[in-house]
Amino acid sequence: MLMTLVLTRSYAGNLMALLAVRHISEPYHSLREVLDDPSVTMVWLKGSSVGRYLTEAESGIFREVGDREKEGRLLWRTQAQFPNDIDTWVRRGTHVLMEVHYGLKMSLGKDYTKTGECSFYESKEEFLPLIFAMVGPKNSPLVPAISKRITSMTEAGLFFQWLKTEEPNSTVCYRTPTKVTVKTSLSLTNIWGMYVILAAGHLVSLSVLCLELLSLHLKHTGIK
């Protein structure tokens, strides 16, 4: 009876924890993890400088990424095709979108605005950063003046403010927790394990009873 009480309390505690805390899977946090998984396909921006770099890289991890195109694990898509790709391929978990940081924030924000929940996540590892700049004539007095104003705008956070103005939910899903607390009513779909254990317990008890009856019968008939 003591053992039954301990097992019952333990199972009840684990069941309540399982129902209350939901674990969100995030299998890809680095480019290496994506490359090592043969079941996932990468989606890159078509016609970008990154795409040209991948095709021209002669060694390293980006050479491996370029080689995946021959295996059918690398697709080139346009910016206009990204929303549909996210809502289909990426949502099913068969594809991973490779995009610049601001582009990912916009995509996550738009999906949150549409669905009301964070369905996607960004990897913790960032790679191949892009530096945008304005090109001016050499030794031109305009270059220092423009550089000073661009630096002031960056330090003031105007770029982030413009991003948030264009998509208010762009930062809602940034670094979302992998464990969330949920509230749900009990139903047969979330407590079916209790009935499975109950049925298994009755089956084991019935098997033990049959063995005892068989042993008693063999004992009375003199068969060992």
Automatic annotation (TrEMBL):
<feature type="domain" description="Ionotropic glutamate receptor C-terminal">
    <location>
        <begin position="2"/>
        <end position="201"/>
    </location>
</feature>
<dbReference type="GO" id="GO:0050906">
    <property type="term" value="P:detection of stimulus involved in sensory perception"/>
</dbReference>
<dbReference type="InterPro" id="IPR001320">
    <property type="entry name" value="Iontro_rcpt_C"/>
</dbReference>
<feature type="transmembrane region" description="Helical">
    <location>
        <begin position="192"/>
        <end position="214"/>
    </location>
</feature>
<keyword id="KW-0325">Glycoprotein</keyword>
<dbReference type="Pfam" id="PF00060">
    <property type="entry name" value="Lig_chan"/>
</dbReference>
<keyword id="KW-1003">Cell membrane</keyword>
<dbReference type="InterPro" id="IPR052192">
    <property type="entry name" value="Insect_Ionotropic_Sensory_Rcpt"/>
</dbReference>
<comment type="similarity">
    <text>Belongs to the glutamate-gated ion channel (TC 1.A.10.1) family.</text>
</comment>
<keyword id="KW-0812">Transmembrane</keyword>
<keyword id="KW-0675">Receptor</keyword>
<dbReference type="GO" id="GO:0005886">
    <property type="term" value="C:plasma membrane"/>
</dbReference>
<dbReference type="GO" id="GO:0015276">
    <property type="term" value="F:ligand-gated monoatomic ion channel activity"/>
</dbReference>
<keyword id="KW-0472">Membrane</keyword>
<keyword id="KW-1133">Transmembrane helix</keyword>
<protein>
    <submittedName>
        <fullName>Ionotropic receptor 93a-like 18</fullName>
    </submittedName>
</protein>
